[in-house]
């Protein structure tokens, strides 16, 4: 065992291939369906929305490894490898026999792991000769990451930012503008779907699902423009596999293997990436590591959602995905973990969860911030509220070990930093933060609006 | 030559000793003087203000290396070694034959190099059995760093934050509070000196010099309490020497040696630390590297100040230091580089500058932000406005190389990140930023209030 705090791989140890977990899954998730016909979508169907290479990645269930394009490898070198850190000080504070490691993806200006997929998506768009991209952002991390990649590869970018976030985080908006992207608070008057949503809910603070609708509408109605998404999609989990591949390489170098891997789960991009390399071992039967998805009690898609076909957006213009969902019309309450407010969950993670490979827990916001403050004081990193969900559960697992005396090895994903979330920290410190949990009735109202696939098919 | 973007030392290559450049200086700077008697201060004189070990370090001109205490070494491992980065992308954008390296000290929650000295100062205070500390902060980086170290070593802390900064940066304040420190906007009603300043200037937005006065007053009037300072002092430059030592070790590992070393200079903590190991070579005559201090045109202590004895604070309660100064009563205009608004400059750097070992340039704010935005887009790191002063000059030197064709090796200090400075970025992007340059008359008014050491001595 090493007594190193931080383990950095060498630059030439940064993975040169992404890993596609679907190639090792015994069963695939159900296919994406066209919202018009109810039939499985093809690469051709996706091409008006996504650039071609990404559309192919989205539907590829057999290619185990994808080469990371050279320009993306070069871009990765600006901020990767990211450190794997042993939380010695947190362990000491908890008096736990457990060993706690975290993979820290926040050491870049986007403040999160989102840059891993942003670089890839902008590169493929550039290669295809596109001139502009659209996207949405909630907490702002994806929008920042994409604006960084767009500035680097010289690509125009419009970001639809959830209105509530844009108002709460003017500085996040300023960062994105510094990198040269246009920001439009969503819902907006710019798109048909935005105007319709505003007409129905004039005072809405918006949602990710609604911002997605607007970004997709602009992409399909603008020449040489495509839409890119920072989570949920299979292509994103593919790109994020670099987190898990690097984590495994770093832990291998000190002869460690995690008993538990923990990640926060909003759309699933971080968790899917973090567990990837270890899940491969599990799927092959050579490991029995536990994988734990942590979600906020305020938006509990895995723990209280349904495994059904649903739209990926509020405006109901995207394909239907079978996933754990609260319904595309579910509007989460104002909650400080802006990145964990999506109504659904990655189809890959949904399938792995449904098949029993992944566990899920939901945690209350005030307990999350309690963990965040303890972690900051011990480890000197100010975590993003999203990441703090994983910290909460890592601490809870370490405290269980304290009771049982088990020396488990825990790995969690520290996806990002909380510099733009100080309003939330202030509210917690002032004792003004509350825990919101949706009622069963609220959830039922969301489920009631799930699409009826049979009806779509027969009406065709 | 390596083609690595980032060079990380191994954890066991983190220096275990700080380097005291005074041991190699041919001449020492003039001694600190008591403001009461005009006589050189002793360790005994400093002990009511500073903890004893730090008072010794402050006055030690002969010990070349100081062992870094084990607990501080352990603390360093949480965020060190910091990366040395080759700015390949910036070089490409500038089409310069120069090689540009930067030492990035912003990869910790304080967002700056300040944590290097904070850890040391809190450790020594703890070891001496003190229970609380006071300090001041301008931009907030030092206050954050110290609150992080205080939380870690379990020490109470009060931070006097320049009122203008506290109001402009409520989130910076929230970070400091997250780590458990008390924040008091300065000038305040808490201290005599604060009340006196408020009486004379009721609407002042404060200054570093004024916050220092308040923090010192509280320290000397509270049992088991001492004052700590994040820049200017010799002890701080000693602790910050780790930046230069690590830079040199990393560059040595790829057979590089800088022709020019560039750092921003407010009180001098970063520049003094960055140049330390290279300055040793220069002082020994084995190198002719150029050292460049970059200061804002709005607060030009080196380029337009006088080399005189002056107070280190506005309230005139600290010892007198001979340094380049604009006068302790100089109130810089509101400027976005909050960390570069100090009226004086480190006595060590002042002496090295006066003796011709260090050059100085002053740069305009809008040109600084122009460089910051270019750097962010190319290198994907959002720099602090302070650090962007060094970037501006590094770019200017690289552009000179483009004209002359010289393949110079440039090293600059990227002291920190700009997440809490987005108001300034927004103002720049909106074209609303102006360049302020103090008039000769304003400077003369500052010089007119310099203390008369002879008069102090003879009045004794």
TrEMBL record, chains A, B:
Signal peptide: none annotated. GO terms for cellular component: cytoplasm. Its EC number is 4.2.1.20. Residues 80-416 form the Tryptophan synthase beta chain-like PALP domain. It holds the Pfam family PALP. Pathway: Amino-acid biosynthesis; L-tryptophan biosynthesis; L-tryptophan from chorismate: step 5/5. This is tryptophan synthase. It comes from Methanimicrococcus hongohii.
